[in-house]
Amino acid sequence: MPAHRRSAALAPFVAALSAYDLGPGGVHRGLPSSTISITIPEADSLEIGRLGSRERFRAVVAGLHLDPAELRQEGGTRGVWLTLSPPAAGALLGVPASALSGQVAELADVAPVLDYLPERLATCRSWPQRRALVEEALLAGLDRHERDTGGELPATLAALSALSALSGTARVQEAARRLGCSRRHLSGTVRGALGVTAKEYQRLLRFEAARGGLVAAARAGTVSLAAVAAAAGFADQAHLTREWRAMAGCTPTEWLRTEGLTGLTT
Question: Which end of the chain has the smaller Cβ count within 10 Å, N or C?
Answer without folding.
Answer: C
